[in-house]
Design brief:
Blueprint (H helix, E strand, L loop, with lengths): L1 H9 L4 E6 L4 E9 L4 E9 L7 E4 L7 E3 L9 H35 L3 E6 L4 E4 L1 H7 L3 H4 L2 E6 L9 E6 L19 E9 L5 E12 L5 E10 L1 H23 L2 E7 L4 E4 L1 H6 L11 H6 L6 H4 L13 E9 L5 E12 L5 E10 L1 H23 L3 E6 L4 E4 L2 H6 L3 H4 L10 H15 L5 E9 L5 E12 L5 E10 L1 H21 L5 E6 L5 E4 L2 H6 L3 H6 L13 H9 L7 E6 L5 E12 L5 E10 L1 H55 L6 H33 L6 E4 L1 H12 L10 E5 L5 E4 H17 L6 E6 L3 E8 L31 H11 L3 E7 L3 E9 L8
Parallel strand pairs: 9-10, 29-31
Antiparallel strand pairs: 1-2, 1-4, 2-3, 4-5, 6-7, 6-12, 8-9, 10-11, 11-12, 13-14, 13-17, 15-16, 16-17, 18-19, 18-22, 20-21, 21-22, 23-24, 23-27, 25-26, 26-27, 28-30, 31-32, 32-34, 33-34
Helix pairs in contact: 1-2, 17-18, 18-21, 19-20, 20-21
Amino acid sequence: MFTSLLQALEKGAPCSLTYSVSSSETDQLNITPLDEGYQVQKISRTLSEPMPVSELHFGKSNPSVTTSIPHSNEVGPANLRERNEELEKQVIEQARQVKSLSIWQNAILNYTGQAILTTDSAGIIQTVNQASETLLGYSAQELCGWVVRLRFDFDQATSPVLEFCAYNPDESSFPFFKPLLVDQKSVKQECIFLNKQGTKIHLTLTVSRLDDENGLIIGYVGIASDVSALNTAKAQLQSINQRLQVATQAANQGIWEYDISKDLVIWDDYLLKLHGLPTDTPGFSFERFLELIHPDDRSHLLPLEQTNLQEDNVVVSHTSRRLRADGEVFYVEISGRVMQDDQGKPSRLMGVAWDVTPRKLADDTLRASELRYRLLVDHLDTVVFQTDLTGCWTYLNPAWETITGFSIDETTGGLFLDWVLPNDRDTARLLYEEALIGRRTTVRQEVRFSHKEGGYGWFSLHAQLLVNENHTPTGFTGTLTDITDRKTAEEAMLESSERFREIAENVDELFWVRDGVSNRFLYVNPAYEKFTGLTLEDLNENPLSFLALIVEEDRPLVLNAVVENEWSTILQYQIRHADGGLRWLKARGFEATNEAGKVTRRIGVATDITTTIEKQHLLEESLQKEQALNALKSQFIATASHEFRTPLTAISSSVELMRFYVEREASNSLAPLISKHLNTISSKVISLDELIGDTLAISKLEEGKIQINLEDLDIAILCWELVKSTFSDRQDRRQVELETTGTPTVVTTDKKLLQHVLTNLLSNAFKFSAKNPRLKIRYTSQSTILEVIDEGIGIPKADLPNLFGKFFRATNASQFKGTGLGLVICQEYLKLLNGGLNVISTEGIGTTFTVTIPYARNHPDY
């Protein structure tokens, strides 16, 4: 009931409310809307019959609404009055609220810029605000009572057409929005409307459903906005975007935007494809954007701080390396501006970007090329220069300062002739002027330039005229190559050539120089005439005429060397001098080549070795005679040894026999004297026998007749047996002290020769010492070493170098018997066994002889 009352009051219609107070009394409230509130009048009535309901009456144009008000007969009159008073208060409060809402509603309807229409549930327009009249061109009186229809004409327009028409209750159709509003509270549709003046207007129409407290539809409200200007702006913006897309595509550029407040980077399809990303990739954060930047370039993008973006339209420009999804590196250049919001704060950045990889790579290549060129020029040992048309230096590389000592600063701007040696200036000036007047475009000249520290240097000048695009001369560029060393070498070569000629023409050797290709002689010294008896003119006329001088048996050898240019060995041949005498020549040749390895000269030297050959023949004859004498000597020694030993044997036998008879006649007073002389005879016989043996051994060594019988020996056993058999029963009771260290190893050697060596060394140790000699055996990884040590008289230091000479005896050993051949024989025997013998001795202290026998079986006879 109150809802109906409120709806009536909202429409500004007067209404009345009749309700029961008791079974026989009713009250009627008459409510009249005023400008600033409502007038409420209550009328009490007495009924003859009970009234079970209350009646609510509205204005004449509104149908009556009857609402049941339940009441209880059990409630007394006092309670009913309280209820009525409370009801009256509620009605008054509701009326006040309705009035307030009405004021707000009227304000919205009258002052809003949007067109607002309300309809009942049948779609009949009930209210129209002023904005609707302005927008649609129809008055409220014309529109109220009409209905709204949408006509779809896709042939004429893409949006439906909005129409107003009279309400026809017989039409079975509903408004276009009614089916949609069954499930939705509101719908929105863009449409086209022809206003009363026939102007086409683009509208956005929003229709909302009005429900009562029971959820029943009681009407609709529609809000329309003119979007013609917006659509025009959209069309213009779309056109601008299309033109921008065409322009950026034609320029191979992409569009980017960065919303600072939202931290959102947005790229168009070009940039997404350029970075290898799908075209449907949504916007992403600045942090994700930095991940697509090469790590070394990220720091260049971070300094875009707020302090740098305070002014509007700040230009942002940068080139950086980017990383595609596949890891490929490429270069992108961006250009954009900073946009600010209403508060003047940076809000977003917008701009374009394009791939500059080819240009960047080309720039890098160009810079690298320029750097290489600059490094090359700066490190050349050749001067690179430029001058203007007046001949003043405009550029010089560092080689100028290195070579001349003049700094580049003090030289630049000066006239180049000022540095040319005075004697060369006229020639340099003439060449320069000829180039200026077009007689030549390049200048080549060897010229001298001054040094800062004095003196001068030779330079090879190579200059070229510079012209601009109009072929107008602008200056000169060129190089100065330091040829001082070459000129010095040429002068030295000339001097050397002169000295060579002086030497070649005054030596006894024949010297010649032939061409590298032909047989033509370029130079032959005067010794040719001395060697052959022919003139140089004859040789120049016929380069092969000298072959007739060579004896017939040597001619092919020389001809092959001269004609075929094969000087593999030194040639030795005979020639017949013009006077008929024979001469021996020894010739050698060699080739001189150029830088390309091509033979340019063939040089030969021949020496007259006639005297040498004659001496050689004499020596050969002398050698043959000496060999014959040696053979005779060997034969004599062998014969003498045999002839001497035969009587010595007889003498020894006679001495032993006489000693036997003397011992039988021991009582004879002459027996001691006879024994003494017999001992002397025995001693001399032994010494003479040793001398004969050593002499025979030396002879065999010299003739190479010593037989070597190699066998595997245990050196320790060999030494023990030798000591036991030879030195164990001496009259003075002295013994050989034998020592062994290391792991015994079998040695391959000649037993007889090694025994002879050890016997001789141990005999000398007993002879020159009063103490027991020592024999040490040491086994090493490479050899067996035997050391014979005595503590005797030693060997003077001055005698050690000659100790192993034939018949040499130390100066302090004259009182001891010996031949001076023992050590010589020992050393030669050990050489035959591939071993060695060394000595260490100190006079007055003792001597150590060291015998080395290697393990390696590398003896030639093994």
